[in-house]
């Protein structure tokens, strides 16, 4: 979304477990994805990667914080995305890759995470905002978006989360939003055969 050119290298995680093989472990000894390499610099972890990219390449200053309070909110939501919200990804992965696990515990964690997001976004909207960390979209929103946008694939529905649904629609309208598998763009129909909608 910042317009930085990159080269994507695919890693066969399932069933290949390529992330546990010596060539990948030489890049990231923890064997975790995602990982970025920028020259000689390597870093893993979604939040750390988003922070690095925003601080290094976002010339607009939109995606990272310009004050300590906003930065602390961003850090909170990055931690939330890799913590409780990760239960959504694990539920989805379990179904996609037939991974065994404690579904009841994951469902409860994911439900509580979505409830917190709904309550937080409702309060943010009542206060006149629309984004998790402040008055503009940030890397906090980027970190949260994929899991939430795909929550239906983990068995959840937006019917009980109107503020979350509105936020996902706002996010999909951002400049340079990239359509992803399972996440459709916002379609705005203005006039079709004399019918507006």
From TrEMBL:
Q: Name one Pfam family in it.
A: GST_N
Specify the domain of life of the species encoding this protein: Bacteria
GST C-terminal domain residues? 67-192
Q: Which residues form the GST N-terminal domain?
A: 1-61
Classification via InterPro entries: Glutathione-S-Trfase_C-like (IPR010987), Glutathione-S-Trfase_C_sf (IPR036282), Glutathione_S-Trfase (IPR040079), Glutathione_S-Trfase_N (IPR004045), Thioredoxin-like_sf (IPR036249)
- Protein name as annotated: Glutathione S-transferase family protein
Q: Which organism is it from?
A: Acidisoma silvae
């Amino acid at each position: 979304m910042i317009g930085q050119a990159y080269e994507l290298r695919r890693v066969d995680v399932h069933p290949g477990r390529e992330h546990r093989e010596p060539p990948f472990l030489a890049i990231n000894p923890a064997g975790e994805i995602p990982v970025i390499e920028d020259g000689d610099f390597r870093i893993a972890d979604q939040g750390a990667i988003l922070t690095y990219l925003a601080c290094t390449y976002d010339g607009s200053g939109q995606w990272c914080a310009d004050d300590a309070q906003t930065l602390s909110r961003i850090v909170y939501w990055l931690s939330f995305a890799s913590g409780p919200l990760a239960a959504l990804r694990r539920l989805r992965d379990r179904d996609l890759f037939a991974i065994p696990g404690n579904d009841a515990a994951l469902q409860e964690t994911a439900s509580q995470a979505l409830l917190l997001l709904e309550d937080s976004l409702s309060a943010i909207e009542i206060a006149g905002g629309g984004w998790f960390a402040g008055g503009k979209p940030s890397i906090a929103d980027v970190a949260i978006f994929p899991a939430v946008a795909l929550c239906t694939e983990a068995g959840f529905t937006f019917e009980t989360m109107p503020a979350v649904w509105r936020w996902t629609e706002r996010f999909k309208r951002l400049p340079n939003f990239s359509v992803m598998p399972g996440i459709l763009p916002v379609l705005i129909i203005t006039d079709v055969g004399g019918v507006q909608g």
